[in-house]
Amino acid sequence: MNKVQRGDGDGAKEDTAIRCTTTAGPITMVLHREWSPQGYIRAKSLFERGYYDHSHFFRVVPHFLVQFGISYTTDEELKRFAESTIQDDPKREDLMPFREGMISFAGSGPNSRTSQLFIAYEGAGGLGNSPWETPFGEVVEGMENVRKLYSYGDMPPWGNGPQQGPIRNQGSSYVEKNFPLLDKFLTCTVSRVDSSQDVQEEIPNENIQAMEDSVGDFPAGSGDSADDLQGGTPDDNSNVMKMVEDRRAIRGDQTHAKNNKDGNSSSVIKILALIFVVGMLVQLIARRNKSKHAEKSV
């Protein structure tokens, strides 16, 4: 049995926790459907089906991003699904600029999102300008492990890191032979997070795929069954939501601090402007008095 949150039909407030083990340590992500509905559905589906398991973090660029999403799966149907494109989601200005830990799809043009994802590092404020760069989730635990992922530099032509073509054509052997220190996923588990405290309905595994098909999660005749999904315990979900709320509180504090800083800067500017005006008035009065004194002397 797996738990699926009972919602209002469009899943606008639906959150999903992804708990992954990696060679650099555990990482927990939470995906938010309301941030990017199409991106959320595709990413959740791929994680559920084990698409990213054992794949490498092939592009690690400090102060920019970590990119992954070239799978070593032998499931041809899953490959076809992962290579199909999805439409871009509307931009959320309140999520811009990208903050460290935000997760988005990589792409090559409008409506080009398939399976490659990236996690933003601190200092990657330029991300989000392209229409496909819409965050759909965030790292809520283990960001220190994301920061220590091994880097060979950016991919060519910007660096000497792994090339995507050989990874696709040769698989993990290309990476392990030429870039043996690259970190990779081990396995990931997926669970629905009850973010609204709504009652959750237990649904038999055999009915889950039919439900997901109706919103485009899985292609018809999926090769992997929903029995592979592993749900978290209620305590796990509560802990994840606490992490999410803590991150949101931190972002709120940062915004408040920025606003205070901007307000303080504005006050300083106003004071300096007032001092300047007063100084000009004093000089003007002094010149007028000097002029009158000169006239009396004549």
Automatic annotation (TrEMBL):
Pfam families: Pro_isomerase (PF00160). Its EC number is 5.2.1.8. The keyword Nucleus applies. Residues 213-239 are annotated as: Disordered. It catalyses: [protein]-peptidylproline (omega=180) = [protein]-peptidylproline (omega=0). It comes from the Eukaryota. The chain crosses the membrane at residues 268-286. PANTHER family: PEPTIDYL-PROLYL CIS-TRANS ISOMERASE-RELATED (PTHR45625), SPLICEOSOME-ASSOCIATED PROTEIN CWC27 HOMOLOG (PTHR45625:SF6). PPIases accelerate the folding of proteins. It catalyzes the cis-trans isomerization of proline imidic peptide bonds in oligopeptides. Belongs to the cyclophilin-type PPIase family. This is Peptidyl-prolyl cis-trans isomerase. It comes from Cyclostephanos tholiformis.
